[in-house]
Amino acid sequence: xxxxxxxxxxxxxxxxxxxxxxxxxxxxxxxxxxxxxxxxxxxxxxxxxxxxxxxxxxxxxxxxx
Length: 65
Prior knowledge:
Elements: E1 5-10, H1 16-25, E2 28-44, E3 47-63
Antiparallel strand pairs: 1-3, 2-3
Protein name: NETI motif-containing protein
Organism: Pontibacillus salicampi
InterPro entries: NETI
């Protein structure tokens, strides 16, 4: 028997719709969407600051019945 839970990450150059289709093809359905910011260190006026430059989208999925 396979895994009951799996995480699917939306990679750069791939649409959310493509990930949702992949999940369905593998027999999973989304139960939660998580967005995590990606930070980059910037220097401004001699001070270091962390600025968000992108985001990572992850879907938690469970096996469809």
